[in-house]
Inverse folding.
């Protein structure tokens, strides 16, 4: 951890406590509010901002360790928080509606936002129900190639 001045250390402790009390579902809101007050709806922008905050609090370079689940090999490596944050930011064309055509169907959809994920999680008891709820929130239209509407099932 980067050495902190006393005021930064107490700020960091307050952040830790606030995030802990918030619980897993809204912990990122507490961290993002601390980082600058803006709470982006985009999952990519949220993750990029959280990575930038990590770099600001603990140093730009982060040492990591990964254990291969198949062979057990341990790999030590480091990441640059700013580079990872840059990779997490969505491209400008990611906003808005997208279209997917496959096997005689045409889907129009938008990318999920944090509110979609939270609502789907709150109303879903299983991973399958979560996936269906999230899809329903992000699907704009579903049509067969003749133009007749369809269900995404």
């Amino acid at each position: 951890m980067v050495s902190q001045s006393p005021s930064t250390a107490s700020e960091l402790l307050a952040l830790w406590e606030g995030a802990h009390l918030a619980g897993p579902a809204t912990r990122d809101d507490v961290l993002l509010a601390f980082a600058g007050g803006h709470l982006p709806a985009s999952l990519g922008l949220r993750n990029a901002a959280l990575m930038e905050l990590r770099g600001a609090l603990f140093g730009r370079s982060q040492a990591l360790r990964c254990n291969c689940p198949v062979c057990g090999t341990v790999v030590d490596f480091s990441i640059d928080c700013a580079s990872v944050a840059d990779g997490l930011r969505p491209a400008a064309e990611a906003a808005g509606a997208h279209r997917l055509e496959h096997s005689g169907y045409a889907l129009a959809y938008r990318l999920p936002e944090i509110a979609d994920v939270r609502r789907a999680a709150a109303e879903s008891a299983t991973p399958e129900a979560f996936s269906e709820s999230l899809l329903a929130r992000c699907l704009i239209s579903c049509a067969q190639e003749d133009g007749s509407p369809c269900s995404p099932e």
